[in-house]
Amino acid sequence: MSITPEQREQLIAAAFSARDAAYSPYSKFRVGAALLSTDGKIIKGANIENASYGGTICAERTALVKAVSDGTKTFSAIAVVSDVASAISPCGICRQFIREFCKLEMPILLVPADYSATAKTGEKGSVLDVTLGELLPHSFGPEHLEMPRGE
Amino acid sequence: MSITPEQREQLIAAAFSARDAAYSPYSKFRVGAALLSTDGKIIKGANIENASYGGTICAERTALVKAVSDGTKTFSAIAVVSDVASAISPCGICRQFIREFCKLEMPILLVPADYSATAKTGEKGSVLDVTLGELLPHSFGPEHLEMPRGE
Amino acid sequence: MSITPEQREQLIAAAFSARDAAYSPYSKFRVGAALLSTDGKIIKGANIENASYGGTICAERTALVKAVSDGTKTFSAIAVVSDVASAISPCGICRQFIREFCKLEMPILLVPADYSATAKTGEKGSVLDVTLGELLPHSFGPEHLEMPRGE
Amino acid sequence: MSITPEQREQLIAAAFSARDAAYSPYSKFRVGAALLSTDGKIIKGANIENASYGGTICAERTALVKAVSDGTKTFSAIAVVSDVASAISPCGICRQFIREFCKLEMPILLVPADYSATAKTGEKGSVLDVTLGELLPHSFGPEHLEMPRGE
Ligand SMILES: [Zn+2]
Ligand SMILES: [Zn+2]
Ligand SMILES: [Zn+2]
Ligand SMILES: [Zn+2]
After folding, report:
1. pLDDT > 70? residue A69
2. Fold designation for C5-135
3. DSSP secondary structure, D1-46, as one string
């Protein structure tokens, strides 16, 4: 599960592009996400808010339901960018949603809004590279609903 | 806000086709939805469930976030079909989500799984035609968050 | 399924009181709800928001999970009040959540923030009396998951 | 932020007791949670499911909205137990919801259904002690919505 430097740059660019379609009149907080499928497609998502705040769907989940409902279910990486300079991490809801379809070692690229392709790790403008397993340790997943039960 | 008989048949066919991509290992209940945009595009969605049941996203919302995150925000109709013979109606979450983007008079086509293009209203296999306003009366929407407040 | 005038006033007063506990730093929109159980208890709820907007839980759902998790599952009425003068209706998510436990004829009292106990129907300060069935027509409920399926 | 051995046993017992009120006809998976407030109260929650799976509210969130809507907003610990023998961890939605009100160092006790008060760490029947920060690293929280924005 590795991506090439070219794919990485394309994925980051797609996350920025995805952000333009955010519908966030309530939070005024735009988020863009881009998923890379194992067969090389890039699927973009943005946050779509709702007057009933609880109905809001984040950028990461938007990208995932787009992909899955089009028949794509295996992924190599996801990149996320918001409007703030520092790298912002997926909310817990999205971590759980990603968990349904992705391996724990899948890379998640947290991209700062002031991203610079030449920044080194830890520098201003640098991407924070994490994995799903790092963001959702001791995770609950589909397999737990199959476990033997009893008092 | 009217659709031609041809668009209607295409929309219904798209809802059936969308249903094939449902990810519903928990409910075993597949749902497909198809949105018609005002510029004539058809956008398909299916229900995508989650091991944490609360994370589940229905077919109607999947179709809407796909459309909106691709820049399409105005719609003429939506059709919904599930695995049961009788017409099934959107859940309240989806009604609220549709409310964010659609007019109250927008047609919602509730399609039975045993749909027949030649069935007349009320017959076996016939579509139940409703509107968003009929499904969500006295609705709460974006405009209510802008109202003057005070004790 | 009827409530006495005394219960009605108590329920409305409880909804106002419940509103004080709202946690709504994002919307700045406070909502209070009060449920009347069939055995005469009043259970209060307020909206509890979340930085990830999608995690937000409304006042009506808060009241319901409080009741159900304490073993109370049958209800006679619910009253809802917000910060705006006009009566505000439950969002679709809450209508669906109420549907899980309540009969379609259950009264839902939509209370304006400028409520006056002496206002007549339709007057300034008057309560809008509706039922669950009126707010969620053609509803989808627990029984639909039990229906026979097939193409 | 420490709890006494007595409080710990009371909290675990409350989580088991809370589980009895689960409403989980769809997953058949019961979960109980018990919150300890900083002023020594124990608040119980159970999972309350919904025919529209997405409406489901987990035990942990039920406990939190009960507490907060009753005016209790600071907590010392939470314990969670399900029907499966091994310790089950909160879903991502609940981690995010806990994050809204609790410090990252708050203890979360993951209690196996075959819990034994005398089991040692790692033994059959032993509790898995984690913290919120361990379950939700690089977390997104209320403070991020206040950050300066711009490209
Ligand atoms: Zn999210
Ligand atoms: Zn729905
Ligand atoms: Zn609501
Ligand atoms: Zn949960």
Report:
1. yes
2. Cytidine Deaminase; domain 2 (3.40.140)
3. ----HHHHHHHHHHHHHHHTT-B-TTT----EEEEEETTS-EEEEE
Contacts of B95 in chain C (CB under 8 A): 92, 95
Token reading at A9: 């740059």
Which residue numbers in chain C have pLDDT < 70?
A: 1, 147, 149-151
Task: Return d(Cα D50, Cα C63) in angstroms, integer.
Answer: 15
If you ran DSSP here, which 8-state letter would residue A90 be given? Answer: P
Residue B55's contacts (CB-CB under 8 Å, 6 or more residues apart) are A93, A96, A97, A100, D54, D91, D92, D93
Average pLDDT on B88-105 reads 97
Nearest to D109 by CA among D139, D86, D77, D63: D77
**Residue C77, helix vs strand vs coil:** strand
The catalytic residue among A6, A9, A60, A134 is: A60
User: What tokens appear for C110 in the block?
Assistant: 């939509």
How far is residue C42's CA from residue C54's CA, in Å, rounded to a whole number? 28
Which residue of chain C comes nearest to A55, CA vs CA? C54
Calpha distance A71→A50 (Å, rounded):
26
C58 annotated ligand-binding residue: yes
Chain D: residue nearest B52 by CA? D91
Looking at the complex, report in whole angstroms how far the Cα of residue D43 sits from the nearest Cα belonging to chain C: 10
Q: How far is A3 from chain B (nearest CA, A)?
A: 25
Find, among A71, A90, A72, the residue nearest to A36 by Cα. Answer: A72
Going from the C-alpha of C85 to that of each of A95, A135, B140, C123, D34, the distances in angstroms are 39, 44, 14, 12, 38
* Cβ-proximal residues to A76 (8 Å cutoff; 6+ apart), any chain: A1, A2, A3, A7, A36, A37, A38, A106, A107
Residues A24, A27, A28, A34, Cα dihedral to 10°: -50
Measured in angstroms, how far is the CA atom of residue C58 from the centroid of ligand 3? 5
CATH class of this structure's domain D5-138? alpha beta
pLDDT tens for each residue of D49-76: 999 999 999 999 999 999 999 999 999 9
Q: How many other C-beta atoms are found inside a 10 Å radius of the C-beta of residue B18?
A: 29
Q: State whether CATH 3.40.140.10 applies to domain B5-146.
A: yes
